[in-house]
Design brief:
CATH superfamily: Gcn5-related N-acetyltransferase (GNAT)
Number of strands: 8
Strand order of the largest sheet: 1-2-3-4-5-6-8-7
Order of helices and strands: EEHHHEEEHEHEEH
Shape: globular
CATH architecture: 3-Layer(aba) Sandwich
Largest sheet: 8 strands, mixed
CATH class: Alpha Beta
Distance between the termini: 26 Å
Length: about 180
Amino acid sequence: MIQGSSFYLRYPRREEIPHLVHLMNLPESRGDYLSKELFLPAVMEKRLMDAQESRENMEFFVIADLSDQILGRVFHFKTVPYFQSREIGYSLFTNQTRGKGIMTEAVTLLRDYLFDTTLLNRLEIHMNTANKASERVAIKCGFQLEGIARGAVYDRASYHDILMYALLRDEWAAMRQR
């Protein structure tokens, strides 16, 4: 468990996984920028169960408040085999929890955890160019804009450009020294 100011990051419990997949499929939890494509429950349940057995390809945490209510999720996954990097993904499940700094703190906790416990040299966050809230999270967590992947994602009947942010280990270390 990784403790935050008013929540913590923890692995999902086996008995929570069906409910978690349900939360991830709710339209409100998808927001305006996540894909509208629904997760197949059996496939996603297996993926989450597999993630609990090894963090080599993916590690998944729920964001739970102090009463243990699940607020959202934060995770990292390997993108390409030849990069020493991970991409971070995240979402909050309700509009009531958004805009309160929870995700910035959760990503900061995950960022620090990954650099403290792995040999990774690079973390990435990608988002739709219109997703200003997610972009603010990346910037507040020290990530730098590297470019735009034009037409990289197909969703909602059109192609979308993706902002690509990254943070290197030495940049993170310099931030911690300040």
